[in-house]
Amino acid sequence: MTTFAIAMVSAAILALPPPTSAARRLGGLQLTVVDDRQAAPKDDPHAVASTFDLLAACLRAGLPMATAAATVAESSPAPLSMSLRRAADLLALGADAATAWQDASSDPATESLARMARRSARSGSSLAGAMTELALQRRTEAEDAAGAQAERAGVLISGPLGLCFLPAFICLGIVPVVVGLAGHVLGGGGLL
């Protein structure tokens, strides 16, 4: 028995790879640098709401709408960024609010922003409060969508789980009960 153990240990020692230095082991390792701007998710549901909050903060700080829209456009998601830049450029050139926000009103993602900006320009009211409400509405919509996805996932996972557990339940729960009852009913278990 001990000769067998010694033979197995010596075979394991012979099978080990030769020792190498840490520099040689890491020599083949390729490191990649990840850019945070590219690694960010493309469809962030809270990005639009954050943009509206930032726009409200700029307006509360006293920036004119053209300057606030141009500033916020740099960090906003794609469809909103293009609409904000176009409106900021038109407002800076002296266009009225209806003309400046016309392109933004055709996009469903920015339609509510354009509507509120035109209304604010007509009435002279502050747009900052409306932007805060719009941000809250977008966050609520994102939370509702996330809750609906979680509920859908719960429903979709119950099918495969049922298919996995149902055969086990039948084999381990129902079949023994039926066999036991059949044995008692047919007079002493003549079936098995």
Walk me through what this model shows:
- The protein has 192 residues and is an all-alpha fold.
- The chain has one domain.
- It is built from 10 helices and no strands.
- Helix 5 runs antiparallel to helix 6.
- The radius of gyration is 34 Å and the shape is elongated.
- The two termini are 47 Å apart.
- The mean pLDDT is 81.
- It is found in: Cell membrane.
- It holds the Pfam family T2SSF.
- Keywords: Cell membrane, Membrane, Signal, Transmembrane, Transmembrane helix.
Uncertain spans, ≥5 residues at pLDDT below 50? none
Report the major sheet: none
Helix content: over 70%
The fraction of residues in strands falls at under 5%
Shape: elongated
Overall strand count: 0
Q: Which structural class fits the helix and strand makeup? A: mainly alpha
What order do the helices and strands follow? HHHHHHHHHH
Global Rg: 34 Å
Signal peptide: 1-22
Main location: membrane
Subcellular location: Cell membrane
Keywords: Cell membrane, Membrane, Signal, Transmembrane, Transmembrane helix
